[in-house]
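Troubleshooting: if your tokenizer reports a length mismatch, compare your output against this known-good record of 80 residues.
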Amino acid sequence: MTASSNSSVGARDLPRAARLSRSAEDALNEAARAYDLSGRGYHRTVKLARTIADLSGSENIEAPHILEALQYRQRYFKNM
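Known-good structure output:
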């Protein structure tokens, strides 16, 4: 993969670049249903969670990384 940052990873390469644990995948899918996330919103959440996981030194995205990424999303919509 030639992406230089998490934000530049395309949707097709995302599963390879951002491996989710089972609990992270469950949390993300539940949030996608609850918040009616679009495909773009789903991918943006995964990319942000990948950055959060990188900052914490985690090889895989775990549920807490997804939950933190979703918190930032919620703040964005509350300020609009």
